[in-house]
Design goal:
Elements (H helix, E strand, L loop, with lengths): L5 H13 L10 E6 L2 E7 L9 H4 L2 H4 L16 H11 L8 E6 L3 H10 L3 E6 L4 H9 L3 E4 L3
Length: 148
């Protein structure tokens, strides 16, 4: 029997969380972990109680917005944003935690991650975002790509 490492274990859970995504373009999952305990999860999709893109269509597709730009032009929240919001909503501190994410965070999410006190990001895939990379490095966050 081969037992997964902690990183593999949490990344597997992150991939499962991503399956709840309602985004028509990309399914992303995020898991916030501290001391080997899951504190919060998030996936990309519309705010609670609002119609999801699979119900009303994709604003980004309809407007021909390429991936990785103009993040504000979307009905949905990113997985990282939802995980941070869920922790706040339930009064769970995530200071000093590690964020596992199926995709490397964009610059908007990176700014939220920095201010939430998350200290490490482990991701699987992602698009190039040089500003995000610079800000995470300047803030002293450890960023690691875990290949599947």
């Amino acid at each position: 029997m081969t037992r997964p490492s902690w990183q593999e274990y949490f990344m597997d859970i992150t991939r499962m969380v991503a399956k709840r995504s309602t985004c028509l373009r990309r399914q992303v999952g995020a898991v916030v972990v501290k001391d080997k305990r899951i504190l919060a999860t998030g996936y990309n999709g519309a705010p609670s109680g609002l119609k999801h893109c699979h119900e009303v269509g994709c604003l980004r597709e309809d407007s021909s917005i390429p991936s990785g730009v103009r993040h504000e032009l979307c009905r949905g929240l990113h997985a990282e944003q939802n995980a941070i919001i869920q922790a706040a909503f339930h009064g769970i501190t995530i200071k000093g935690a590690t964020l596992y994410c199926t995709n490397k965070p964009c610059v908007i999410c990176s700014k939220m991650i920095i201010n939430a006190g998350i200290r490490k990001i482990i991701y699987e895939d992602g698009y190039d975002d040089p500003l995000s990379d610079r800000m995470l490095q300047e803030a002293g966050l450890e960023v690691e790509r875990l290949k599947p």
